[in-house]
Amino acid sequence: MSVTSSSQAATRERVRSWTGQSITRKEDGRLVQGQGSFIDDMGMHGQGYAWFVRSPHAHARIVSIDPASALAMEGVYAVLTGAEAREMCQVPFFQIAPGDGGRIEEWPLAVDTVRYQGDAVAVVLADSRDTARDAAELVEVEYDPLPVVVDGVKAAEPDAPVLHEKAGTNVAWHGTYDFGDIDWALKNADHVVKIDRLHFHRFSSTPLECNGAVVDWDRGTGVVEVKSNLQMPMFAAMVMGPTLGVPINKFSFSSRDIGGAFGNKISFYPQIAALALLSKKAGRPAKWTEYRTEHMLTSTHGNERTFLDIEVPVMADGTILGVKARAYDDVGAYLHYEPLGAVIWSQVVPGCYKFKNVQVDFTTTVTNKCPVSPNRGYSRMQHLWMLERIVDIVAHELGFDPVELRKANYVQPEDYPYQTPNGCVYDSGNLPLSLDMALELADVEVWRRRKLELGTGTGKRIGIGIGSTLDSGTNNFGQARIVNPDLPFSGNGEAAFAKLDLYGEVNINLGTTPQGQSHETTAAQVAADILNMSPDQVTVTTGFDQAHNSFVGFSGTYASQFAVTGLGAVMGAVEKLRDEILEVASFALQAPIDELELGDGACAVRGEPARAIPFIGIANLVYTNNAVLPIELASRVTLNCRHVYVPPFQVPDTEHKTGNLTLTYSSQIHVCVVEVDEETGVVEILAYSAVDDCGKRINPQVVEGQVHGAAGLGIAAALYESFEYDEDGQLQEPSFYEYHAGTARDIPGIRSGSIESPSPFTPNGAKGMGEGGGAPLHAVCSAIQDVLGKNDAIVADSHNPWERVHLLLHSGERGDPRGVRVVSRGTEGAWV
Amino acid sequence: MIRQGTTHTIQVTVNGQVYNRVVEARQLLVHFLRDTLDLTGTHIGCDTGSCGACSVIFNGQLVKSCMLLAPQADGAEIETVEGLARSGELDPLQQSFSAHHGLQCGYCTPGMLMTATYLLRQNPTPTEEEIRQGIKGNICRCTGYVNIVRSISAVAEAHRATAVGTTEGRDQQ
Questions:
Q1: Which ipTM score applies to this complex?
Q2: Distance of CA A22 to CAs A15, A506, A704, A769, Å?
Q3: Residues of B in contact with A10 (CB under 8 A)
Q4: Could you say which residues of chain A have pLDDT below 50?
């Protein structure tokens, strides 16, 4: 166990192991000099600039589109409308949903009907960005507005306006998850805490670099080249291929530096498909750089989830027996990656806790809002927030200490590997210790005293909150079959190539799409240890490139998995390369392999440093001097070693909705101390701590950076950031003016600590991490709950700007409904 | 593509180099830097002057280059991230950002570095509070600002140590 409040970068001295060192990043040199290659920095010869024509209405029939004035403008190459695009396509985009949801149709551009504000109806290509924007203004579109639904629960009601006629309903998916015996638990509990409604709000991590792509449909070869900042290119390829009638081997996806993604850059395939068709029509590459308001309106939002009729059975000693709830996921107008949110939460059914009885009735609905797609903490954080809310509310209502209640209900260190009620296996951890460390880092004892001293009548209140969360990583894609048993997906994997090049250079190609996660550095650390050289001697080619052939269907950077899948692939590939180097060296040096050792880019006979061959010599023998080698060796050894890491998964039981859905479970425990102003409701964070446990850390400074980042985004979401629509479906926060992205004044200093509970299931003991499980949302809500009195309403929303906090502070005085009640055994109105 | 009748001829000095260019009247300064001069280190993260990714130093003042038109830069001296390193040597802020992991994706970094450069010129030894105030116009979505503040603080600390050293030296004379 170690507490790290700051990490010092290790110098590049010879060390026993590069793994575990906080070395400075290989990425930094170019990035601090403005030499990164982000999407808007790239282009193709002869390109035009694309600008989308977007609907101002949230729901409307498209009566007509007239591009004549736009086409008459000097410099305009082409205009593509939704109807034309559809004519050029084979089938609508692939849908994950079965049944009604599977009949939801989406094409590259809206056809006949727009379904959210910003839905694209046409796209213009011109000789400059400004000309394209001007021309887009001149495309005349006549709309006939339709009724709008912006509430995910109301959308499921029979009288709600239906978005997709072919589906016939707004319910894109529905299913009941039932583990253990919730009826037994509710009958036999000493108390049942009943909560009317909890609402997890809509926000997104809004990467500072918006989406973008340069797309060329080559008329000669039929190859569709896509330079983009997609973070899961093969998912886009699989969705787009059948629609465009393009086989996967005729796509050429690549990416370089990506300016943040957080899941938000998984699903902009409709835009890329439209650009491909535009390029095909215009006969030249189409470059599109999304602008901020376009991003806020149309890129993606995080899942908004409403929990209704929550019942929590609790024993007199505080043992929580389970939870029953109805959940509604509002996923916006189209299904992008959805309805996977309806199953991904079940990676963490009991959260950090041991209760066994869980029933969640889950409904995914479409509404006239921006489509959602994964956002840091995707789907698990919504569920984990609900669990942390109920634990706090139970403590608040029944008079338990929130710390002790958590510790008593946590999965205990001796319980690992721990099987959850739905068959997931928590690999390792120490939650009580993490909580103690987090409390200590936040100086909670001091704040508790301060809170008592503060007393009443000062106009200020101090609250202490806890957020216990899990960051499940390395998905078993078989869980997709729980939403649709016909899907041909299961398992996971990642590819890497390790190559010794002609002059003895060591090069590694990844299948991942890093966006700040430092893959160049950590991959080099792992490779350097295997080859006994410095990370500076290892080149890691950044970004995804289909031409590198180092990818599988799952490739990308998402879902907290690189340390396991990506580095598992790197380790396998570099070990294969090492073995080939040793084989060639064994021949060259006429020494058995077990007498050889690698060091500093050469291979030598142990104890005889003069009998050595440098890597350039090995490369020479294989690439340009192979007649020297025995033909058997020369024709077998390539120095090009590909490895695919495959985690050990089985296909889940789709009938019972059980199975091992993720390989690793990092934990984060956050503690937040707030001061709340009674007059204004303003919340100021006085102290904040975060303790991370992601198993073996490859580069502690990189891990700490991820902890900070996830904490910063979560704190800002809890207090400042929210996407809200009015009843007409107009987004109220379409730019960074209205959407208050957290600044350096808003986000406090974060004291971070760590423990390392190595995973027994991964090649290196590491666990994926980075998403953070939404811990700050849990902790901030918990701290606000702590300042509220017995008669006040509960904290029922994940977003708590000062207005809402002010309402809560005075809800008791007004006699507002509290949103919670407790039914205890033997009391009047008991449930038995 | 420049259309006739809407152009200005401007002379701008960027990182010590003089450029003469014909620009459209409506071209934003950030597009002039990125598209016309191909200095793509300066980034765009919003369209509303909110995010600071396009921050540059303009006649000694910190500005968001999406909030100025290119013709307004006629005769101006501009410093961008490309001018920070000299002769292949990273400047102290660049080194400190790398040493303290003050960047992840690197997209906000050029603007953040220019803001920090300006801040330290105004106040070589800012407190943490002053640093946070100084960079509040620059949004970072990756770091929670923790290591950015550390990176700038470390350079301020070095300034403080140098200043103390100088003062002590003077006292001894």
A1: 0.96
A2: 12, 22, 10, 16
A3: none
A4: 1-12, 828-832
